[in-house]
């Protein structure tokens, strides 16, 4: 099949693209397709989130999105105006604010009564020595902005409450079933013909499952021993302002579990409790058990949320699992490709899920534009994307340990200070921080891992040299005092040691 990116006389190529999933990655994919002249149909299992009452669980702002350079680049490459509109509704986060988990609730209450702007403050750990920042974005609002944008394209049609039932990738036909509550016992099934199908339907992707019938897909699915529960910190009832600093990601780390809070434009904080199943079992079904748990582990959080609201939200909201998915290849011939979480769902601890998905879209279309044949473009995309998608999955896993444990480690903080000093004052050495490469650049994820391994070897070598140099200096001073005025004897001892070492080589 030839590359369909040359528009026909009517402004489109006459080629039909089918996008499964109207989340952020699916919506951005539709925009890229529309700009390339495809006739685009987007099918979404759920209702239109732009309509009141359609905020299902997956459309809420749970685990707010952290927008960084890769996601920004994905939007910048296709629509600068859209990017500006999105950025205007985000909040800069310059780093982490790590809180003392033993701080008693009474201290927070006293700050509240004294009229402090922020009821509690922790240790601020900046993301970048040059002042760069990531952005907190409301998941629902960002998705809404993307849908509003693609709805303006005359060659894009949106279909909601349509679930993919089956597809024939050789004949390029898919069947969608009406999934709204009023569907009845025999819901309507729509047959859709396409030239190109993009699966952007999330971690539990139907497209990926059906794609496995056509390709010998390597597939790995991992559930980590951590569940998450969403909570919320509301604005100050008197001033209407944030209760804690809005320009930081707040962490209450407990080594094996943690509580985090991320700012939202409406002055609330979307909070997430990440814990192993055993910790949730420890709380049980009793409000007293919940309050006792928070008093023991996160006492300062209780006055921030409010005792009654904490009890209400904790027992109302589900405790959901975290999944990591690796697979390859991502395509079949010239007819289908999967993107975003459908291709590489990851745990949320690096804030790269959406960013990696937007990067998928940008890189996919770079390959499409670089090759005259769509099948070749998809093959090259799968080959190039696999090592990077797998790498960010691994990085996200390891960053959980950093967030819940290492942020309080003296060794971690010392290493970070050394890296940032060298990065800031001696950039010619090539030393940087892993966070800067992941969040503030478009360096391929696999190259980030390679670079950090090299950097670790260099820094370890330098550290070893400094240690032995210091030991040698102390020894030299000590020996100098001991053998003061006995230079010939000292030289003879050194010569003897040298000969003994040489004899062993």
From TrEMBL:
Task: Give the reaction(s) catalysed.
Answer: L-kynurenine + NADPH + O2 + H(+) = 3-hydroxy-L-kynurenine + NADP(+) + H2O
Ordered alphabetically, the record's keywords are: FAD, Flavoprotein, Membrane, Mitochondrion, Mitochondrion outer membrane, Monooxygenase, NADP, Oxidoreductase, Pyridine nucleotide biosynthesis, Transmembrane, Transmembrane helix
Name one process (GO BP) from the record.
L-tryptophan catabolic process
Show the InterPro entries listed in the entry: FAD-bd, FAD/NAD-bd_sf, Kynurenine_monooxygenase
Which terms does the record give in the GO molecular function aspect? FAD binding; kynurenine 3-monooxygenase activity
**UniProt-listed Pfam families:** FAD_binding_3
Question: What's the chief localization of this chain?
Answer: mitochondrion
Kindly give the HAMAP family that the UniProt entry links to this protein.
Kynurenine_monooxygenase (MF_01971)
According to UniProt, the name of this protein is Kynurenine 3-monooxygenase
Could you tell me which species this protein originates from? Ascobolus immersus RN42
Q: What does UniProt list as this organism's lineage?
A: Eukaryota, Fungi, Dikarya, Ascomycota, Pezizomycotina
């Amino acid at each position: 099949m030839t590359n369909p990116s040359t528009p026909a006389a009517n402004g489109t190529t006459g080629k039909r693209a089918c996008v499964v999933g109207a989340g952020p990655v699916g919506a951005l994919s539709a925009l890229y397709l529309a700009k390339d002249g495809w006739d685009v149909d987007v099918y979404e299992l759920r209702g239109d989130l732009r309509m009141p009452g359609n905020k299902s669980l997956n459309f809420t702002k749970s685990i707010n999105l952290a927008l960084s350079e890769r996601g920004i680049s994905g939007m910048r490459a296709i629509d600068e105006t859209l990017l500006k509109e999105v950025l205007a509704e985000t909040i800069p986060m310059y780093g982490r604010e790590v809180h003392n988990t033993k701080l008693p609730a009474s201290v927070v209450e006293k700050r509240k009564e004294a009229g402090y702007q922020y009821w509690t403050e922790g240790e601020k750990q900046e993301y970048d020595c040059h002042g760069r920042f990531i952005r907190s974005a409301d998941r629902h609002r960002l998705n809404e902005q993307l849908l509003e944008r693609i709805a303006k394209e005359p060659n894009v049609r949106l279909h909601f409450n349509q679930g993919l039932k089956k597809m024939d990738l050789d004949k390029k036909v898919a069947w969608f079933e009406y999934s709204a509550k009023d569907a009845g016992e025999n819901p309507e099934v729509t047959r859709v013909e396409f030239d190109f199908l993009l699966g952007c339907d999330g971690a539990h992707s139907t497209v990926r499952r059906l794609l496995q019938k056509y390709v010998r897909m390597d597939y790995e699915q991992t559930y980590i021993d951590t569940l998450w529960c969403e909570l919320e910190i509301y604005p100050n009832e008197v001033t209407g302002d944030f209760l804690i600093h809005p320009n930081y990601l707040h962490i209450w780390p407990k080594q094996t579990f943690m509580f985090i809070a991320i700012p939202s434009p409406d002055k609330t904080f979307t909070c997430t409790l990440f814990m192993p199943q055993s910790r949730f079992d420890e709380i049980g079904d009793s409000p007293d058990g919940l309050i006792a748990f928070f008093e023991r582990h996160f006492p300062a959080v209780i006055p921030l949320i409010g005792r009654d609201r904490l009890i209400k939200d904790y027992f109302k909201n589900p405790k959901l699992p975290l999944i990591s998915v690796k697979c390859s290849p991502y395509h079949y011939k010239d007819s289908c490709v999967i993107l975003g979480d459908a291709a590489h769902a990851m745990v949320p601890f690096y804030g790269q899920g959406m960013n990696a998905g937007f990067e998928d879209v940008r890189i996919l279309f770079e390959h499409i534009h670089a090759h005259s044949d769509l099948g070749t473009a998809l093959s090259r995309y799968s080959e190039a994307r696999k090592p990077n998608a797998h790498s960010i999955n691994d990085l996200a896993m390891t960053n959980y340990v950093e967030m819940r444990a290492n942020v309080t480690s003296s060794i971690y903080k010392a290493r970070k200070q050394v890296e940032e000093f060298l990065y800031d004052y001696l950039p010619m050495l090539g030393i940087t921080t892993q966070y800067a490469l992941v969040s503030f650049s478009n360096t391929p994820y696999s190259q980030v891992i390679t670079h950090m391994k090299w950097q670790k070897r260099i820094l370890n070598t330098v550290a070893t040299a400094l240690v032995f140099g210091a030991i040698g200096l102390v020894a030299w001073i000590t020996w100098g005092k001991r053998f003061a005025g006995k230079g010939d004897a000292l030289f003879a001892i050194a010569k003897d040691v040298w000969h003994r070492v040489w004899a062993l080589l």
